[in-house]
Specification:
heterotrimer; A alpha+beta (about 150); B alpha+beta (about 290); C alpha+beta (about 170); A: seven-stranded antiparallel sheet; 4 helices; C: about 170 residues; alpha+beta; DNA polymerase, domain 1; 2 domains; five-stranded mixed sheet; 5 strands; about 30% helix; globular
């Protein structure tokens, strides 16, 4: 499925770019992230407990940051499998400065399979977008906590 | 598949149930009708460690007409709503919506509180509650609180309910006898989850001018979509076919549904427009016809 | 039989009893055992079938205290002390129920997998509408999926049985 959206950070572009690639911030903001370890440059192994309400599943997999073009864009590739299914996705994140703010445009493709994709078909698109939105909001909260500088 | 293991409690009073929720917090899940929860458990998509079966709690199964609102106890079965003469007389929009809720066997067990607390974006009762501007009564360790439908429904399957709280009552505003109302839903087979559904109530004065319009849609987002702009288009005007068309197009333009196997985003937007028009026309046919 | 490893929760069995088709049954099971599995496995009443396990197909439909429920969406412990009717309870003293007769007459079944749930579901529907039109029947049985017949003869059978059942004054 195609997933895309925008999120505006109230912070300058280079600060936002640094933040989005900061492993500590990623670990704190990736939904349900219980573990994230760098296994190779820009490659992280992660365990994430993802879900909505009582529907939860644990995914183990890989997060990779590549095609870095600071401070304008980068690509994030995620893949994981677990109790309720598997997922694989890759998205391009682009940053555009707007005065003192930064508009982040993200666009990607995700494949979801297994139980959650079948039974959860009606909601998977909406829930995925919502989680990505939550991720960016939590990232913005990180700035307030003195995350990336 | 079969459910994962869980600890099972069937408290005999509301206080006992609330104590169990307090003791177990996030680990516990309330089991009422089970028509939404047990499927999730059968597939192991949900694995609550503790189940608090509230079916034995007395005094939560009632339908009362109170000052312009129908108060329905959380454990009232949908099948009871279906055949309730009080609801048919005072809130017929809810009676009509019940026709679309699953199937007879589902409605035997499914409860009013349960479908509201589960908050499935395609569900009919949250849609009607949102359209009419109803309330949800919730009880927890801090006591009782009353939330509006707008505040209660947060997103997909998510409400303002805390893990230590339980829905105890759902309140639907009554439909004035001279108002028109309709619930229209589209799905591939009768009883399937709605692809898109519309609930509407319209009130006209003696000059056939619209004095009140309440519209909401299900299946177009994470929560019921309250069509405020469309309501505004109707209010204060003489509702002609042109006005209905304008309201329907407004809804079609405003909703931002996701696409999936059952229908693309464009298709759902189209459905939202067409069904809003149909629902409003049906509602208007009834408006002003008393008795 | 020894149960699993030390990490598994100890299996707690609850003793339950229920009246099914007029007969009292007793058994013991975990809280998580579904009612449909209990009546099939523990009580040997295999007429009720397991289909989708999420309430859509209707194969598991039975009567609980006079109204139909999806037995795949109830835990057996929830039926403790209750009154059930399954497909085995429709025929009385070797004589088929009028609805079963009609299914036979009108060839309303092929493989028979949906049939128990279909019979029970149709009877509950007829209790709400004793004189249905064909369209009303089609909506009324929409909670029971059939992969074989295309529903045509099922609808015919129900239409034919409706007046007979109405005359009897009871769906049982």
């Amino acid at each position: 499925m195609k997933l895309e959206g925008t999120y505006t950070f109230k912070a300058p572009q280079d600060v936002v770019y640094k933040l989005l690639l900061d492993p500590a911030a990623l670990r704190a903001c990736m939904p349900g992230c219980e573990r994230m370890e760098e296994t190779a440059p820009d490659v992280y192994e992660a365990t994430m407990k993802v879900g909505v309400a009582s529907v939860k599943g644990t995914f183990t997999g890989k997060v990779q940051l590549k095609d870095k073009r600071p401070p304008a864009a980068f690509t994030m590739a995620v893949e994981g499998s677990g109790t309720v299914g598997f997922m694989k996705g890759e998205g391009v994140v682009e940053l555009v400065a707007q005065g003192g703010q930064t508009e982040v445009k993200w666009s990607g493709d995700a494949q979801v399979g297994g139980l959650i994709a079948g039974v959860g078909q009606r909601m998977i698109g909406g829930v995925s977008k919502m989680m990505i939105g939550q991720f960016f909001k939590m990232m913005e909260d990180q700035l307030g906590k003195g995350g990336a500088r | 598949m079969k459910p994962a293991q869980f600890e099972y409690f069937d408290p005999g009073t509301l206080d006992e149930a609330l104590k169990l929720l307090r003791d177990h917090g996030d680990d516990a899940k309330v089991l009422a009708g089970g028509q939404s929860l047990v499927p999730l458990m059968n597939f192991r998509l949900a694995r609550p460690k503790v189940i608090v079966d509230v079916n034995k709690i007395p005094g939560l199964d009632y339908v009362r007409d109170v000052d312009g609102m129908i108060h329905i106890g959380a454990l009232t079965r949908q099948r009871t709503v279906e055949t309730s003469s009080v609801i048919k007389g005072k809130c017929p929009l809810l009676t009509e919506a019940t026709y679309w809720v699953g199937h007879l066997a589902i409605r035997t067990r499914g409860t009013v509180g349960g479908t509201i607390a589960h908050a499935d974006p395609a569900a009919e009762y949250p849609c009607v509650l949102s359209a009419l501007g109803g309330q949800v009564v919730v009880k927890g360790p801090a006591g009782e609180r009353v939330l509006t439908a707008d505040d209660f429904f947060v997103t997909f399957l998510t409400t303002a309910l805390q893990p230590t709280e339980m829905v105890t009552e759902v309140r639907f505003p009554t439909v004035p006898p001279e108002a028109g109302w309709a619930f229209v839903e589209f799905s591939r087979r009768h009883g399937d989850f709605a692809i898109v559904g519309v609930a509407a109530m319209v009130q006209l004065d003696k000059q056939r001018k619209c004095t009140d319009a309440r519209i909401a849609l299900c299946g177009v987002g994470g929560t019921p979509f309250k069509a405020r702009s469309a309501e505004a288009i109707l209010k204060g005007t003489e509702v002609t076919d042109k006005v209905i068309q304008a309201a329907a197009e407004k809804v079609g333009g405003e909703v931002e549904p996701e696409g999936d196997l059952h229908g693309s985003a464009e298709y759902r937007k189209h459905l939202a427009k067409v069904l809003t028009g149909r629902t409003l026309r049906k509602a208007l046919e009834k408006a002003g016809k008393v008795g | 039989m020894t149960t699993g490893t030390a990490t598994k929760q100890k299996r707690q069995l609850r003793t339950i009893s229920m009246t099914i088709n007029g007969v009292e049954y007793e058994g013991a099971c975990e809280a998580r055992k579904l009612l449909v599995d209990f009546i099939r496995e523990d009580l040997g009443l295999t007429g009720t079938h397991v289909g989708c396990e999420h309430g859509i197909c209707g194969a598991c439909t039975i009567f609980l205290n006079g109204q139909t429920v999806r037995s795949c969406l109830m835990f057996a412990v929830q039926a403790d002390g209750q009154n059930l009717v399954t497909v085995e309870g429709l025929a009385k003293e070797g004589k088929l129920h009028p609805l079963q007769e009609a299914f036979w007459e009108h060839h309303g079944l092929q493989c028979g997998f949906c049939t128990p749930g279909m019979l029970i579901g149709a009877l509950d529907f007829l209790s709400t509408n004793s004189d249905p039109t064909e369209d009303e029947i089609r909506v009324g049985i929409s909670g029971n999926l059939c992969r074989c017949t295309g529903y045509h003869n099922i609808v015919k059978a129900i239409k034919a049985a409706a007046p007979v059942i109405k005359q009897r004054g009871t769906i049982f």
